[in-house]
Amino acid sequence: MSVDGARVAYPLFQMGDGGSSPTSTLHPKDFTFEPCPRKFAAEMNERWHSRVPIVEWGLIKYAFQAQANGICYCVALWSNPIARMLPNDWLELKRMAGSPEWPKNASSRFLAWMIRYIRDNYQQHPVLISYQDTAVHVGTIYKATGWKKARATSEGDSWNKPARWRPDGNGTDVTAAVKIRWQIELKRKETF
Question: Could you write out the DSSP letters of every residue in the chain?
């Protein structure tokens, strides 16, 4: 929830004495990752996402946050795949956005945690996918967490077909950018 510009996290458990001010230098190990309310994650995404701030939070299945000392620094929103040709039991990382204080190398750690959490708690999803906007990202977090490139658009080839696309308020430059779809198959833990 936002209070006069502050990002109060939604902890699953009561936090101890840590204060509400973020530390000046945050390290990936300083964060805890947990589910959070979808609407809260959509609001933080709107505040932080560089290219696609608007997301319909009602379509989001799962939302997660990375927080330290009760302050949210990054959110991620997951939904069913937007592409109709993909299986409906797959899960798409719709958005991931971090505050200006969010350390760059913490994103891979957060993504790795979400992969394990989804694998262990939402076993109906055999494959996770995400789309990299090549105009602003190079795909490092996907490579670091074992994802594989599955498909890419070419310059000017939009995945938004007139029959199914509707404006979402994020602008046409976002839809025209070259995208790469990454995916990872979730390996289930063997139980004996």
Answer: -EETTEEB---SS---S--SSPPSS--GGG-EEEE--HHHHHHHHHHH-SS-----GGG-SEEEEEEETTEEEEEEEEES-SSTTS-TTSEEEEEEEE-TTS-TTHHHHHHHHHHHHHHHH-TT--EEEEEEETTT---HHHHHTT-EEEEEPPTT--S--TTT----SS-HHHHHS-EEEEEEEPPPPP--
